[in-house]
Specification:
The protein is mainly beta and about 500 residues long. Helices cover about 5% and strands about 45% of the residues. The strands form seven sheets. A six-stranded antiparallel sheet has the order 23-33-24-29-30-31, with no helix packed on it. It has a five-stranded mixed sheet with strand order 4-3-2-1-20, with no helix packed on it. Strands 13, 14, 15, 16 and 17 form a five-stranded antiparallel sheet that branches. Bound molecules: beta-D-fructofuranose. Beta-D-fructofuranose binds next to β1, β5, β9 and β13.
């Protein structure tokens, strides 16, 4: 059974067992008080020993100290602090007991893991959702309250609210939950909020799973919501075959971008994140005609990504660096899953078509050395940022390798304008799941220029390949015996430049 069907079955099994009071098959190793809906959960469940040195532990990407993590949730910027919540199992290294873990950062690069913010209550597990700082106190919890909306996943998926009046230290579950009840819909989840300045109201986007739809709701107080519209024309249904999850609607310049994750049916296989560019009038989103599906990332491992709230015009996204095809099997212990590097989003117009660009945020400079020319093997470091420029009149292979003979190959097809990442048995450990090896993750190169510059971020268990213009991104997990510390372009070990990246765990 693959992870997707396992997860669908385990969600169903958890729902049934929650009703009957039996929780054993949900992977629960400790009792959960499902009648605890009014409680403020401030328990310290995550020990923070120095576990960040294990073999595949990313050195410049966020991972929880231990246990399972999936989607980023509730990301909100509050007065100098970047809050990152995430789907988390406080008890085990597999999916289950879904809660909101919590980490904070003042620079988007170094993260401090906090106490678990929200745990399952009588309405169910705490699935994905979002948070905003309610500066005007529209919800009645006071000015600047942090208001979180999430899916309560019980016998049905319904939308619930929690809030914090101490900048995310402690959380109160709203007594009137659910704020959007559901009696008949099968998939109805992952509320993402934004303030729509023109119509002066809060808007929520909600995913409708196998209906291949995103629903929009509006509210003045974050508590009472009314349905606005649904985005699901047959044209877009044909884009993919997977359920729609984790929407995010953002404004970039004068255009609106709707980000939708879909699983399975991603650009290679399994999980992937699409985007639609169009217009939103406060009621309905209409996508411009384009070559859909358009992918935020053409690799295997950038899923469920959404942006931080309360950042003004700046839009920063982080994704879950994994894929439901094999997420439960990746050889990481005592933790499982990392986030991508944070990505700055923007739009670019090439030959009359708009594209979403995602570049690693400039804050990465804080942990980077000066640039140096590549001259043989790279010096020992926790992680690397490599820059390679190739001419686009011919084909090239950029090879990342280590001293154990393991290598990750990136092909640049100059004339065909394709960027291809190859992950297989030569890359490192791959046999833990049959769907991990992929002959080719292939992405279009949008630029028509005669040279292409590519940024490559190498950590212990990931490679993020991003064209310098940000239009093409390929994010992939890898599990080499040691970090790739050699870069060859067409067999030549002296092409390109690099800077070392300092580890973020102190
Ligand atoms: C996406 C997702 C969400 C859901 C969460 C459950 O990966 O399936 O739709 O809220 O994971 O963990």
């Amino acid at each position: 059974m693959n992870m997707t069907s396992y997860r669908i079955l385990s969600i169903a099994a958890c729902c049934i067992m929650m009703q009957t009071g039996c929780k054993d098959d949900c992977g629960t190793t400790e009792p959960i008080d499902i009648n605890n809906s009014e409680a403020t959960d401030t328990t310290t469940q995550v020990e923070k020993p120095n576990l960040y040195t294990d073999k595949y532990r990313p050195q410049v990407h966020f991972t929880p100290a231990k246990n399972w993590m999936n989607d980023p949730n509730g990301m909100v910027y509050d007065n100098g602090t970047w809050h990152l919540f995430y789907q988390y199992n406080p008890y085990a290294n597999n999916w289950g007991n879904m809660s909101w873990g919590h980490a904070t950062s003042t620079d988007l690069i170094h993260w401090n893991e906090q106490d678990v913010a929200l745990t399952r209550d009588k309405l169910g597990d705490i699935f994905s959702g979002s948070a905003v700082i309610d500066h005007e106190g529209t919800a009645g919890f006071g000015k600047d309250a942090m208001v979180c909306l999430y899916t309560s996943s019980g016998s049905r998926q319904q939308q619930s609210m929690a809030y914090s009046t101490d900048h995310g230290k402690t959380f109160n579950v709203f007594a009137g939950n659910p704020i959007i009840a559901n009696t008949d819909k099968d998939d109805f989840r992952d509320p993402k909020l934004f303030w729509h300045a023109d119509s002066k109201q809060w808007i929520m986007s909600l995913a409708r799973g196998w209906q291949y739809a995103i629903d929009f709701y509006a509210s003045n107080d974050l508590k009472s919501w009314h349905f606005l519209s649904s985005f699901n024309t047959p044209e877009y249904v044909r884009c993919n075959k997977g359920q729609w999850e984790c929407p995010d609607m953002i404004k970039l310049g004068d255009k609106w971008v709707l980000i939708v994750s879909t699983n399975p049916g991603g650009p290679v296989s399994g999980s992937g994140t699409m985007y639609f560019i169009g217009d939103f009038d406060g009621e309905q989103f209409v996508a411009d005609p384009s070559e859909y599906p358009m992918w935020l990332d053409y690799g295997m491992d950038n899923y469920a990504g959404v942006t931080w709230s309360n950042t003004g015009d700046r839009k920063v996204l982080i994704g879950w660096m994994n894929n439901w095809n094999y997420a439960g099997d990746v050889p990481c212990d005592p933790w499982r899953s990392a986030m991508t590097l944070p990505r700055e989003l923007s739009l670019t117009n090439i030959d009359g078509n708009n594209y979403l660009c995602s570049k690693v945020v400039g804050e990465i400079d804080a942990i980077a050395s000066d640039w140096k020319a590549i001259d043989g093997d790279l010096p020992s470091a926790q992680a690397y940022h490599v820059k390679v420029t190739v001419d686009m009149t011919s084909n090239h292979t950029i090879q990342l390798a280590n001293g154990q003979g393991e290598h990750f190959d990136i092909d640049v097809k100059g004339v065909a304008r394709l960027l291809i990442a190859r992950r297989n048995a030569q890359t490192g450990a791959s046999s833990f799941n049959g769907s991990f090896s992929i002959p080719a993750a292939q992405a279009p190169i949008r630029s028509a220029a005669s040279e292409l510059t590519i940024d490559i971020f190498i950590d212990r268990s990931s490679v993020e390949v991003i064209t310098e213009d940000g239009t093409t991104s390929l994010t992939n997990l890898v599990f080499p015996s040691s970090i790739y510390n050699a870069v060859k372009v067409d067999g030549n070990a002296n092409i390109g430049s690099f800077r070392t990246l300092e580890g973020i765990w102190k």
